[in-house]
Each structure stands twice: as C-alpha cells, then as structure tokens.
Specification:
By secondary structure, this protein is α+β, with helices and mostly antiparallel strands. Helix content is 19%, strand content 33%.
Amino acid sequence: MRHARLRTLALCLSLEFLATQSLAAADTPSRPVYPKAPRASQVDDYHGTLVSDPFRPLEDPDSQATRAWIDAENAMTRAFLDAIPERAAIRDRLTKLWDYERFSTPLREGGRLFYFRNDGLRNQAVLYVLDREGAAPRVLLDPNGLSKDGTVALTGTAISRDGKSLAYAVASGGSDWQEWHVLDVGTGRNTSDVLKWVKFSSPAFTADGKGFYYARYDAPASNRELDEVVKNQKVFFHRLGTPQAADVLVHAPDDPNFLHQVRVSDDGRWLVLSISRGSSGKNRLWVKDLSRDGAPFLKLFDDFESRWSWVASEGTTAYLRTDRSAPRGRLVSVDLAAAAPVLTNVIPQGDAVIQSVHAVGGRFVVVTMRDGSEHVRIHGHDGTPGKEIALPVLGAVDGFAGRPADSETFFSFTSFTYPSTVFRLDPATATATLFKKPRVDFDPAAFDTVQVFYRANDGTAVPMFLVAKKGTKWDGANPTMLFAYGGFNIPMLPSFSVKNLAFVERGGVYAQACLRGGSEYGDEWHEAGMLEKKQNVFDDFAAAARWLIANKVTSAKKLAIAGGSNGGLLVGATLNQHPELFGAALPAVGVMDMLRFQKFTIGWAWTSEYGSAENADQFKFIYAYSPLQNVRKGTAYPPILITTADHDDRVVPAHSFKYAATLQEAQAGDAPVLIRIETRAGHGAGKPTTKLIEEATDQLAFLAKTIGGPER
C-alpha cells in the first residue's frame, strides 16, 4: 500500500491513603503492600493439565472491582515515581529534546505535495499541502483540534491520484478502530463520506478518483468494542458521495480468519488483493482486471507458502517481490495473461535481505538489509544493479513512494544518533539531496555507535548495537538498557529515540539486540524464533545480557531489559527464567497470558507465530514459557515497572493486569513491582506527545532509582 474512554471524594481519599501507606512500605526494608486485586477460583483444564487463573476478574477492564484496582495501582505507582529526585530534571531534558521540528516523507499526487510536520511539542503532527511548485505550504488537516488532550489521532491517509481527495482515518484513545472521512483538498472541507468499523486496512483509490476499495468488519457488540474477537473482514468498494450502507461487497472470505489488503495498480487496471491467514506474513495474491466489467479474481498464487508483494505492472506483466524459493527475497516478473504463472527472475536473491522494491522513474529502487541495517541501490528496468546511494551511517530508510513515470521520490533516513532526515532522490542519476533536516538539542559527535556479534547458546551469531557517550569505559559500572523484540518477522533496525538518547546522555549504554524471530537474515531467521522454537528468542536475549556482563559493559545489578508488545512477552519470559541477570525490567503492553491471548480482539491472528494452547502439542511449549503462568512464588524479582493502557485493543490490558497482580503476590524480595496504567491511550499508535514525554519520564526515572548512574 502506498499511502500506507466520578470517583467520589471518599474513594479518592482512600486511594491517596493507600498510596501513601504502600510508598512508605516501599521505602523501608520490608515488602511493599500492594493493592488487593479481585480474585476468583478459576481453574482451567488444558489437555489434562489444570491451570489456575485466580485473577481472571481483571479481564473485565470496566468492572467496578477492576477500576478500583487500577486506581489504587496507579496511585501507588505515582507516589513512588513522583518521589524520585531525578524525575523533574529528566522530564525537563526530555521536553527540551522532544521540542524539534520533524517532517514525514513527502508524497506527490496530482502535482500537489503532501507531508506531515510537527513544529516540536504539538500532540499530533499536522498535514500540509503545497498546491504547486513554489507555493507556500498550507494546513490541510490539523488533528490537534479533534480533542483537548490530543488523544484523538490521525492514524491513516490515502490520496487520490489527481490530488483532489484525501481519505483520512481518526482513532480515539489509541484504539485500533478507525473512522475514515474524505476531505476535498481544494476547499479543505469534509465531504459526507464516513466509513466505520475499519481496522488493519487502508483505502485504495481507483485511477479516476471517484471511489476506493477498502476492508472492514461487522460492527462489534455494544460495549465490547475493545475486547471482542474481530474476524470476518470483508472487502468493499466505496463510491465517493454515497453512504457506507451503499458500498458494494467485492470479496467475502471463505474463512473468517483471513485478513485483506487492497491496492490498485499504478496504471489503474489491476485490483490487487493480498489475503493472509493470521500474522505469518505469508499470503495469497489475487488480481482482478478492472478494465473488464465483471471480471473475476485471478487467483495468481492461492496458497500460504510464501510472501508476495506487488511492486508494479506494465500491461499484463506484473513485478512482484517474493520469498518463494528465496528466503532472503527476490524480484520476479509474471505474465498475468498466461494460463499458469511462470516466475522470471528480475533481481535474484543475494546475500542481503531484500526489504522492499519501488518502481520509480523507469527504474527499481531496492532496499536491502544486512546485519540489521539498510542499504539502497538503484537497479535498471531489467534488474541490472546500478549505483548504491550513500547513506550517512549504519541506519534505516523509509519512503520511496512514486510511480514508474515520476522523476523523483523522497525517503527518510535515521539512526540511533541521527534524527529522521528527509532526502529527495533522483532515480536517473542515483543522487540524493537534502530536503528537510531536523535540529535537535544534542551533539551527535559526542556519541559512539558500535555493532558487535555475540554467540547464542547454540553457537548462532547474533548482532547487537551499542550506543554510548564517547570515552565510556567498559568497567562494569555503566547502567545499561537492553532492548529487543524477536518476533513476527520484524527487524530491529537503528532508529532515533529521544528517550534512549536521554538515557545515554545520563551515562547509560543503550543496547539493541537483533534476536531470532525477526527478519534480519530472512525467513529462516524468523522461523528459528517462532512456534516450538520460540525459546531460542529468550535464549538469545539472555545471551546478550551475559555478553554485556562478561565484557564489562555493565553488571547484572546495573542492567535493565525493555521491550513492548511481543517484546513485552520477551521481557516477561526471560525475566522468569533468569531473574538473577537483571537489575530492573520495563515490560510494556506485553502478551503475558499465552494461554488466552487468542480469545481477545486480533489475538487469534498471532497463533501462526506462537501456536495455540487449544492445540495439545503446542500447549506444551507455550505453557513452558508463558510469562503469567511461570511467575514463581518465593522468587526475588528485580524492580519491575509494567506499562499498559486501558484502551489497548490489540494486546488487551488484562495481560499486564494479571501479570502485575501475580508478580506482586509472588515477589519475595523488597524490590517494587509497579504497574503504570495509561488512560485514553492504546497500544502506542497515535499517542500524543505529552503522554509520550510523561511515560518516558517515568521509565527513565524508574531506572535512575533502580539501576542508578555510573559507579565511578
């Protein structure tokens, strides 16, 4: 895709008293006194294994008992964090660092140039348009006016090819649910078009701009919008100016577990339908000839054995990126008019992973990944390799939107100490020129980034990046934050983070490991960290910690681990298995109850990655590492700050709620186990700047309190 929710005074006073008592307990050698969570005598039978789930009532985020527990936990956490002396200075520094002008990668349609800009501390970026070359930019859409607290976010856009219509999505409180609207670019006014119950889909405009294809769900049951399982996504065509009820059904799946992405080819002839089953990334690829009325879908590739991505087409020749017979990827052509598809190599598989291919200016712009960083090379129309684009340092790129006839495209580049910078690219000369460069209040030359390779338990070499201030001594005294993800074929690429930079500025070391489960070395690397091989990911993470300790980058008491979503699972599982290795942990919005994740919202789609406890064989390996079920009473866990959001409808907050209550009950040591529960926020997308700063402040203040600064 190109454009790719009144407590009484007595209750408040009682919570304030509870927080004060809990904090007092935390400041003494005795164990903190935690709020009592609602309980039930719940025991489930998994293929003959009885598993207790005493905190099942916390799965209802809106019950009176759960809301009271949330308020009590937040009060306790706030009392602890607000008492940390360094917190005010950390917040001030984060605010200053965050206050810089930043731009998205521009997109040109119909002679107009569209881009997002945040002038510094705005909660949400503003969409601008330049109507013609040399014209002054004008505000097209400012989402900051949609809500007072910035929690109604602009979460998706699609622009018609003539540049006259903008489809845009808004989401409230961080939810994945999107409501799409259409805006007339010329007048800046909304039309009557409103589309509801959309998630995981973006509109694909037809060539004439009169309508678009998209995918949506049936409306969920009332008051179940944030936890009901979402299935049976259908594809529709919406004609501009008509009500959603009049949308034409284009495709209804024969399996409710199928997910759909749609696009229209650059020449407007082909409707391209990608059908996936869960989150494996492997997909069917169907095409429909829009030049022929009533033409059926051509089931070009109708299995789920490979990944297929549409790049471009010329007449009946389609160019596709695939990992079929090429785990690191290749570009192929196929004749859509042939009786059976025959793949012809255009750019064969090489040593590096082909991340993406873009057809611009009669050439192919190819993004490859090697050892966790990206590179860009221009290839001829026949696939012949040409010039590589010089990038500033090891880092990552994004963008390259355009059409085969365009003479330019734009891309952004970022790295750990290189804020996202926009470049204009001329494919004909393979020349990149600076377009927009941010100015951040720090000196990149004051920091070093190095890449190391360490050995996992089975001897596998795993890459890891280290970021530190120049002159940092490897003497075991450095507070260190180890971050990773390890799943869903997602690579851990270098990227700029104000939070991480602020941590390093204070004398810390930031370490980012490229664990198995990602795509750093292609599909084989991913498959080595999924399903029954998921333990490899936790072993890789623990091995990274041991390497950091053995090489005196840090020590166990100075080492914190962090990760979000699947990375939260990573932190929880590894912490259970090796609590002695770490001085603190920051699991965020984690998948912690591996026995029940598939029962909420989109969780069922992750069974292709994790397996399911409903399968007897898969239950065995899932149960062995599931963070919730492997917390052990009597264990002295290090300090833990769990973060989640009560509007998270991707990884529902029950995961973190139950995990926190279980850890607090099991904790044998004096270290605090806290949970920070954000309201009016979700899994992360669209979170306003104010909330980003506050969350980062709390996390860094927690680390300042628990693992401290350099001991020299």
